[in-house]
Amino acid sequence: ANKSPAPGVTADYFSARFSGEFQFAGGKYQFQATADDGIRIYLDDTLILDQWHVTAVKTYTVEVDIAAGKHQVRVEYFENNGAAVCKLRWTQK
């Protein structure tokens, strides 16, 4: 049986937005996003990854040059049905 991830949120047919401010050392970074269904990644309100479609779980990567300092990272995600997966990580290259 599917369990609801939060009160008022069903196991299927939902969307979520996650955001935070993070310190970066500066240089080239690789962002790796894994999602089952759609995902968008923004860095300081600039769209850097746009995979907004229904799909089985997939992993996407994008490399971005980032100036040293604090930057806003925002993830937008939607789940159609079936498995719900939303992961983001980044590493300095």
Please, could you describe this protein's structure?
With 93 residues, the chain is an all-beta fold. It has no helices and seven strands. It has strands at residues 14-24, 27-36, 38-43, 46-51, 58-66, 69-79, 85-92. Strands 1-6-3-4 form a four-stranded antiparallel beta sheet, with no helix packed on it. It has a three-stranded antiparallel beta sheet with strand order 5-2-7, with no helix packed on it. It is elongated.
Features:
single chain; 93 residues; mainly beta; elongated
List the SSEs and their pairings:
Layout: E1 14-24, E2 27-36, E3 38-43, E4 46-51, E5 58-66, E6 69-79, E7 85-92
Antiparallel strand pairs: 1-6, 2-5, 2-7, 3-4, 3-6
Rg over C-alpha atoms, rounded to the nearest angstrom: 14 Å
Question: Structural class, please?
Answer: mainly beta
Helix percent reads under 10%
Distance between the termini: 41 Å
Shape: elongated
Provide the spatial order of strands within the biggest beta sheet: 1-6-3-4
Order of helices and strands: EEEEEEE
- Let me know the largest β-sheet: 4 strands, antiparallel
Low-confidence stretches: none
Mean of residue pLDDT values: 92
Q: Beta fraction of the residues? A: over 45%
Strand segment tally: 7
Count, helices: 0
Give a quick rundown of the structure:
By secondary structure, the chain is an all-beta fold. The protein has strands at 14-24, 27-36, 38-43, 46-51, 58-66, 69-79, 85-92.
